[in-house]
Batch of 2 targets.
Target 1
Amino acid sequence: MPAEAAPAAPGPENLFRHPWRFVTEAPAMAALPPAGPPELAFAGRSNVGKSSLINALVGQSNLARTSNTPGRTQALVFFVPDPPNADPDALPPVALVDMPGYGFAKAPKKAVESWNALIHDYLRGRVPLKRVFVLVDSRHGLKASDTTVMNELDRAAVSYQVVLTKTDKIKASALEAVRAATAEAIRKRPAAHPEIIATSSEKGAGLDALRAEIAAFAG
């Protein structure tokens, strides 16, 4: 009797059809939830648009807290799908992680140092972490702090993918120039996914492509 085929991973049309819910926030590594489903983290400079992009992906305006003030997110914040009638004991298929922004932030120096250390510890040592989406403001391109994070991910052999944000705020020709420069910068990096996704949280550009990337990791 032939072996039964494993069930297919949920596609983006199913994964993002239902609401998502907040699970927990971890201000330190000791506060992280137990290892569970694959984790996909959103990293980037402060005010790059991580929380806004997560809200746009799931179609919920207030799931992740947003602010125009750099440094609003100060812990690792976990979200999972919350379909109706789901088994409360079942493992979610995937978790999204909203990370504190690195770089400049309007917060006390010690607080910034603390969450920058948390970012780097999490990126280097979290077993369920399967991919990091490194968000880059399309108006500015890669900065030194982005390169530092990518260097760490390369050393830790953690897969990452560059996601350009706020593409509605620049001209198409400028966007293509940033995309080309970014592609060249990551071309020889061992842990970098070669495809760059250009997104706009306000206009919806690139969201379906990013949802498909996320769904590919869903268990």
Target 2
Amino acid sequence: MKKYVVLAGILLVTAASFGQKKEIKKAQKALKNNQVAEAMGYIDQAEGMLGSADNDMKTDFYLTKGQIYLADAGNSDFEKMKQSATSFNKVLEMDATNKEALLGVQQLRASLVNSAVADQKAQKYASATEKLYTSYTVSKDTLDLYNAAESSVLAKDYDSALTYYEQLLDMGYTGIKKEWIATRIEDNVIVTFADEGSRSTNMLSGLYTNPDERMAKSVKGEILRSVAIIYTSKGEKEKAMKVMQDARAENPNDIGLIRAEADMVYQMGDMKKYNELMQQIIASDPTNPELYYNLGVGSAKNGDADKAIEYYQKALKYNPEYSAAMINIAATMLGKETAIVEEMNNLGMSKADNERYDVLKQQRKDLYTEVIPYLESAMKLRTDNIELVRTLMNIYDQVGEDTKSKAMKAKLQQMEGGQ
């Protein structure tokens, strides 16, 4: 009897394996014929009999399942994309060189990244983060992990961002890699392509010239800056300082890291240290208007209005259309108005007080006159800025420019009516 029992068991296993193989083949045939729903039904039936299958059959099953779920997911069904990712990962655990699974991973990654980009455009940053991280788990491409971290910051999920950034640092990730580039003829802009093949294909269009290769810049400084700022926002200043100190000790002359430290101490409110670091940065790039603008912001926050205006004006020297610098010059100058108005309001009725009042009134008018050119220039660049229009309307009214004041009033009413 024992002999028959063993034989019966072997027959049952064989029958089950045959059934699994049959369902998998049906699923593969349906998928090949673009009958995705039918393929899904067959693969689901095969999964119920998977327990007794050998590794070869399990590989075949999970490969087919990954392909079916990917086909059914398109660029929108994230749950099916995750199912596909899990299946392809199981295949690669059993056979790391499986060409069909590796191809499926490439296709899945494209779907996940495209879907994440669409989410980011719609400001659905949390969803984009999850898709990018899922892509990393299946593609093992650290760029996906870096993008997931960046997306987490946009989603204000700082704990996840910190986890991802720390993983990148532990792996020694820098983002440095070869890039395939070409110059777009239409606007002379250098464009980066996904790979050499993509660039070669685009060169055939006749829209590009000067194909070349270069190494991407390191993003380690940006990662450390983000980690330090996250620690700072969480109130963990000692951790933030430790991250930056270690980084600076390793690369003392790295301008990216100096900027990262400057951002960090700015968040901490240490404006003296911030200005010192910014001076080091400017020494490396003395014609960069953004640097002077940032120094202006730092000086203004530190209470040094005159120095702030000086830096803003330097920013304008190197970029005459830097509208933010124009606005900040005007705002900083108008900050002096408060002291003038307070003194005017505190004067008495004596002859001396009346004479002082007239002096202060003229100072206020002169201040407005000095500010107007900056505001007018800014408004030419920011025609839809309602606060600029309102400010100019009030100032024109104060200096007696009635025609201009009325024009601004009409413009303001039109803008407010359109909201």
